[in-house]
Amino acid sequence: KKWVTLRWLSKWLVMFSIGIMTALLAATIHFVVEKLAHLKFDLIKHYFDDCAKNNCLYQPALMWMGINLVITVAGAALVTFLQPMAAGSGIPYIKSYLNGVKIPGLLTFRAFVAKTLGVVMSILGGLACGKEGPMAHSGSIIAAGLGRGRINFCNGKSISFYSAFRNDHEIRDFMAGGAASGVSSAFGAPIGGTLFSLEEAASFWNQDLTWRVFFSSMVACFATNFLISAINGDPTKLTDPGLVRFNAFKFDLKFDLIEIPVFIFMAVIGGLSGALFVVMNYKLTVFRKRYLNKNWIKIIEAGLVAMVSAAVAFGLMVGINDCTDKAPFDSHAVTAAVYCTDKKHNSLSTLFLTTPEGCLKALLHDPFESHGPVSLVAFVLIFFLLGVWTYGLSVSSGVFIPSLAIGAAWGRLVGIGVAHLMPENPNLGVNSSLIKQLDVGKFALIGAACQLGGILRTTISLTVIIVECTDDISFGLPIMIVLMISKWVGDFITTGLYDMNVEVMGIPTLPFECPPLCDDLRASDVMSHPLATFKTKEKVENIYRMLKEETFCGFPVIEDDPMAPGKGKLKGLILRNQLLVLLKKKIFCPEGQVPPRNITIKDFRDFYPVYLKVSEIDLSDEEKSYVMDLKPYYNPSPYTVEQKFSLPRVFNLFRGLGLRHLIVTDEKNMPMGMVTRKDLAKFRVGSKRGLVKIEQLKIEDK
Amino acid sequence: KKWVTLRWLSKWLVMFSIGIMTALLAATIHFVVEKLAHLKFDLIKHYFDDCAKNNCLYQPALMWMGINLVITVAGAALVTFLQPMAAGSGIPYIKSYLNGVKIPGLLTFRAFVAKTLGVVMSILGGLACGKEGPMAHSGSIIAAGLGRGRINFCNGKSISFYSAFRNDHEIRDFMAGGAASGVSSAFGAPIGGTLFSLEEAASFWNQDLTWRVFFSSMVACFATNFLISAINGDPTKLTDPGLVRFNAFKFDLKFDLIEIPVFIFMAVIGGLSGALFVVMNYKLTVFRKRYLNKNWIKIIEAGLVAMVSAAVAFGLMVGINDCTDKAPFDSHAVTAAVYCTDKKHNSLSTLFLTTPEGCLKALLHDPFESHGPVSLVAFVLIFFLLGVWTYGLSVSSGVFIPSLAIGAAWGRLVGIGVAHLMPENPNLGVNSSLIKQLDVGKFALIGAACQLGGILRTTISLTVIIVECTDDISFGLPIMIVLMISKWVGDFITTGLYDMNVEVMGIPTLPFECPPLCDDLRASDVMSHPLATFKTKEKVENIYRMLKEETFCGFPVIEDDPMAPGKGKLKGLILRNQLLVLLKKKIFCPEGQVPPRNITIKDFRDFYPVYLKVSEIDLSDEEKSYVMDLKPYYNPSPYTVEQKFSLPRVFNLFRGLGLRHLIVTDEKNMPMGMVTRKDLAKFRVGSKRGLVKIEQLKIEDK
Description:
homodimer
């Protein structure tokens, strides 16, 4: 009983540490990126302003492109060579992992280094990406590391602290906490973060775990708040619970019923343009997979994107030359004058000479007159294309912020349009310019939500995240409405960006429900067979050969029936990993003798999570003739179903219990085959243009 | 394929209607209660003010007690005689239902009438209860009614519209939407409402359902907002998304790091007093179950409580005579002068001459000097005792508002204390009185959260509900912290109020995880046996007898083995309800003949959800000798496990899949016994004073 309490306590403690560490990481990244980015853009701005007079504008252009190129290539190389799993935001991987798929390499120390350093370089390299998405992945890696109580370094060395939680189930629970903490400290959204972790992991939702996940994400949010407030000067002010916030409006956001139709119209646009984004990115991803699959090509492509980003931004700033005298909302923002005079500055410079986050902030909060329609249209087009091109590069990058920025820009356009359409708005009383600013910010916010909803097809958790970011619940209602509508419109055309990713990568995630129209399929129709089975006492040679030849992760153990060999009743299930450890530890003996020793759960844990490979096992010919007694090790009550079991019910078992393999037996309890996740994930329902269709997916073997 | 789309659409449509209807109900109740309560208290106030001068104060006292008595007795009689299931808030029942327990009578038209009319009467009757809790139950009934497409009136008549969704699974999904809508329109908390529905129903959490539930709760919130805004004058203002809100603070709520220790201290108090509340109510509930179980005694008790409530309030107002000249926050509030002169009024009159909600609002928002410490102490003590006494009466009532009011009152006390301890607070600049009001309101809010957390042991959903009610996410952090701590402190002493309720009522809900230390129990240890089985072709007489004698809800169907009767292999599972319908429809024939007709799923649906009783079936002796062919009707692939299956895994199956019965088979696939929810719910882990213990519960047979 004491043991139960102790274990309970230590789980909370680990969750607490996860929250703290994630917040530390978030604050560090935030600090480093902000300082360095400011340095970089300040430098460019100076050359800009000097050269506009001296006709040497090629200097800032080349310098900008050069800086971007060098940093981005370094970041891309880091990701590509250290751990390619660290590319992108990592959210599709994390979601799949929580769904129950094992993804090797996802939670390693290498991935951590590549992810965190990589994202700093991507943003400093001027790519159209954010640092928020990758926080979920970084948080998960921290959680997995703390849960295992061990860090594995590159060269096979490791430091080990404790081993109490070394099994997939526990680690997955901690990882849920880590992902939640990551999201929570990125967006200051503890509730949204918790939901983010839990909605995918149906089998693991329980009250106790939920509290722990919530606790760690609250700790992360609080600690981030404390640290960022401290960086900004006063640690007790606690006004920055996350890395990105939309709440700096001067008034409370209010909306009127008559604005709802405008919002709905915007949601439709968001859904359509989001679907376009997904389609274009899909084509690009397929193209990349086919032609750009060499490491050096990937790095070159990243560098190219970084240079083009700088070049295009430069071109727009010089070409449009939209001058404004309105001070930007953020007093620290870098503003370049370029050709503007009279203390005016180039309005696009506040959008391009900053991080994508700063750009989003400017679009939401800058005064009404800051950005002219022409600049905004150009910005939307360019940023949309850059966003499509950037997502999927072999760099560590998030798609949240660019999506939001695109949406905020065209939302601002709509806001300007609305303000022009009804100039005699009775609300425009004394503070007309302030109200205009608020209004245009409101439309920018709605536009941002629409665009994000159209690209990512926000789930409940994303909705909550956006609402928490906005920090204004009564304005949450229109946000929820537009997120929902843009999701519907988008879903009518394509799947969401993350789902598209998962599909292209062939990760066998299971949807929430069995696809319809599969009711008459049986377990025997989908199972893999013939089956590789072991007897309770099996020859070492057979085991070794089977492990070498087959890739199955689990093997049924059957009764040793001398009359009908290979046809015995099912006794249990043994995992590939267990067999490998048993072979490695040489737990076998000549037939008839008693094995020299047993091994305990501790021995298995020592190998977790990087289990052995068959090639690492050496057996002499004599040893191969020995016999291994599997009785103490196999799981004597694996989940089984009869062959006539219907597919929807098999599906529910996998989804509800988080199974990885299920043994199919005949009426006499003899194993006939195995159903694995991959067998089920093949069936997927696509609903395109309102029609339901079922397709079989190709699942990659890894 | 068209059918799939149509079905999908109609589910959304039903969810939409659920949201609208729930909002209509909420707005109606709100309107009726507010108007009538205002009339009642205005009347009492006039007598109060007149009689204070003329020394006839017995008049308002008697009148107050009389009004309370009459209305409460009427409300209690309504609930007790029409549908006793409508007593209390209904939340424990709804949670159990979502957990997978069938509760007869919970979702009937009678329950709806008793619940909605009952709650209006309880509040007009002056009981210390709220109208918010019951909204979850009312919403669920609306949802079940709309889902079934049929209303069953008292006298067996019914109106039927459509029958597409008449099975437990679909109705449960709609019910989740209804409960969410109810919570959402009560508190203006669409996210909290969604979580409320989903956290208990682990087996039914899936993305698609989540969206539908979210949709209906959003519709409910929006419609409530619209309707209440319309009642208040301007339907397009949309500022009242729920019946109760805590957001009317004049400034944004801010907190400072140094206030956190005070909050934590308050959370500990909240946890302790919450546990005291639960313990006292538990003793009372047991006492009531034993001695006050007659209908007329229940009604008398309710009347007594109503009279005592009035008498005590009267006594306090006259006895303490705390005069204030501060205008109350709510300009419509009824204020009685009693003995006060100089346009002052009795400060307790703003707390007692109003609904409990109005009282809560006054405690949160009234000016700093409005309520003196003596009045507050007296209020806390009295309201605490009345709250304990009221919860569990046979009236329709919620415990949310009284809990919050108790906490707000002592939170306000703490706020006054803090203000006195640091008079030289540097924040107190120009607007010192306004800031004091804000501060005292802030502490009142934290106190309310602490008390609620201590009594109900808030889950994630309640946390979100409170945060949404407060409408200020950055202040959500301290609220989350105190809710968590008060939960921990309370859990150390007792279970929460709802869990206590569920336990006392003996409802077989399953916890989220198998209790620890049960690992070596097997399925065969917990199963019910011997087992009642049927052959695939069974004599009508046997079926009839078995249904009469046994109370099982499902029967295994076995192979007809002439060699060993009653020992055949398992073929499937047939439900009691199916057999009853088959008998009623006389789907049998003399042996050797082909049955005259088959019945379809439509026929079964016609009987849903009020299935037949055995006593309603008449069979002639000839018919009893006939044979029924079960083959077309039984479920050929029920979930089964082998007898050696461990208890935690059996548990996971029930929890993960929402099972009601599981067949246990031996190695040869012959059924040996059945495991039902009740068999599992017996094992429950209690953690009292930090020690873990496992107890076997008594589960009532209903």
